[in-house]
Design goal:
The chain is mainly alpha-helical and 107 residues long. It has 4 helices and 2 strands. 10% of the residues are buried. It comes from Alteromonas sediminis.
């Protein structure tokens, strides 16, 4: 009976240690997934400084001519410093920017 109690206590302690290890691993995995999700949100945005014409055309209200104008502006004047700089491109104003500002980045 004494061995049974010792074995029972040892099993319970082992189960507790295993559960603590599992919880720690689960927490680490959740943190890694949250970090990945945050980086995907940034990478899902269209970078105004690297996007080609076809990619820019996927933005609402941006057709071929506006997309070409964005690329031409970028080629002539250099990279956009902020997303608001896109309003410097002829044909793109605040109203159009409001339609896709959450879909673009400059970094």
């Amino acid at each position: 009976m004494k061995h049974f109690k010792t074995l029972l206590v040892a099993s319970l302690l082992g189960a507790c240690a295993c559960a603590a290890s599992f919880h720690s691993s689960a927490t680490a995995i959740e943190a890694q997934q949250a970090s990945l999700s945050a980086s995907q949100q940034t990478s899902d945005k269209i970078n105004l400084n690297t996007a080609d014409v076809n990619t820019l055309m996927s933005l609402p209200g941006v057709g071929k001519s506006k997309a070409e104008a964005i690329v031409a502006y970028r080629t002539q004047f250099g990279q956009f410093k902020t997303i608001n700089d896109i309003t410097l491109v002829k044909g793109i104003g605040d109203k159009l920017l409001a339609k896709f500002s959450d879909q673009i980045s400059v970094n």
